[in-house]
Amino acid sequence: MKIGLMGFGRSGKAVAEEILNNQDVVLEWVLRKSHTDVGEYASELLGYDGNEGAIHCVDIINRGSFFSDNPVDVIVDFSSSSGVDVYDKAAKEGTRIVSAISNYNEASLEKLAELGELTAVLHSPNITLGINILMAISKLLQHIMPDVDIEIVEQHFREKKDVSGTAIRIARELNLDEQRQVHSVRVGEIIGKHEVIFGLPHQTIRIIHESLERRAFGQGALFAARWINDKPNGFYTMEQALGIASQIGNCFT
After folding, report:
1. Angle subtended at Cα 51 by Cα 46 and Cα 57, rounded to the nearest 5 degrees
2. Could you give the domains of the chain?
3. Of the candidates 83, 84, 74, which has an alpha carbon nearest to the alpha carbon of residue 28?
4. What is the percent of the chain with per-residue pLDDT over 90, rounded to a whole number?
5. At what angle do helices 215-228 and 10-20 cross, to 10 degrees?
């Protein structure tokens, strides 16, 4: 399976490494906004043998022909919310999309969903396997205890400015007030920690997920890419990829 990677920041590099470490997938190219390292290979920059993952700049490529000249099976997007405006043509050609962008505005998210009419698209603002299990368990607990008090605490590295898109997604899934019931902590070099707190009389339940290494994003992205590679056109979630949605539904029947 050939993969094209959008984004080559800290998380993007971790995803690239995960792809390079798996023999059944090939990192065909990396598309980034920066002009840095254009013409080089991600494999060499990350200390691997061989020429894999040719680096291109999104501002330099010919968007009309790039994706047909450099075909891949799946595009994995770890760039920014503007990435959805870049791979329209690839979607029209049937290239599948895995998006791990957390800060889409409504217009960009709608555009991503519309691409599901042309190809198979999977979106998850946090593509780690564990965080999606956390969301599923949280929804199950809320279903069992509909009147429970719920608060969300998200912790990230000092430089992260925005509220975690994952925390906002959890709040929306649980129908919480994302302005009032999501609390942010910025300290040190925490990669990402999310905690859903359920307050009951005389007891508390805490569901916690913490990414210990950015490789967790790579493992989740690769899992999603393998899953979506043979799926029909549509807009999918990680819950569907993990089979969680149907299992939770069975618990409710």
Report:
1. 75
2. 2-123+215-247 (3.40.50.720), 129-211 (3.30.360.10)
3. 74
4. 83
5. 60
Q: 3-state SS of 94-109?
A: CCEEEECCCCCCHHHH
Contact 106, 219 (CB under 8 A): no
Active site residues: 156, 160
In the block, tokens 């969301």 appear at: 135
What local confidence, expressed as pLDDT, does residue 251 receive? Answer: 54
Q: How far apart are CA 35 and CA 162, in angstroms?
A: 25
Q: Are 228 and 74 in contact (CB under 8 A)?
A: yes
Cα separation, 86 vs 81, in Å, equals 10
pLDDT digits (tens, 9 = 90+) for 91-108: 999 999 999 998 888 899
Tell the residue number behind the tokens 């019931």, with chain if given.
181
Model confidence, pTM: 0.85
Query: In the predicted model, what is the mean pLDDT of residues 24-34?
Result: 96
DSSP the chain: -EEEEE--SHHHHHHHHHHHT-TT-EEEEEEESS-TTTTSBHHHHTT-SS--SEEEETTTS-TTTHHHHS--SEEEE-S-GGGGGT-HHHHHTT-EEEE--S---HHHHHHHHHHTTTSEEEE-SS--HHHHHHHHHHHHHHHH-TT-EEEEEEEE-TT--SPPHHHHHHHHHTT--TTTSEEEEE-TT--EEEEEEEEETTEEEEEEEEESSTHHHHHHHHHHHHHHTTPPSEEE-HHHHHTHHHHHHHHT-
pLDDT in tens, 106-164: 899 999 999 999 999 999 988 999 999 999 999 999 999 999 999 999 999 999 988 99
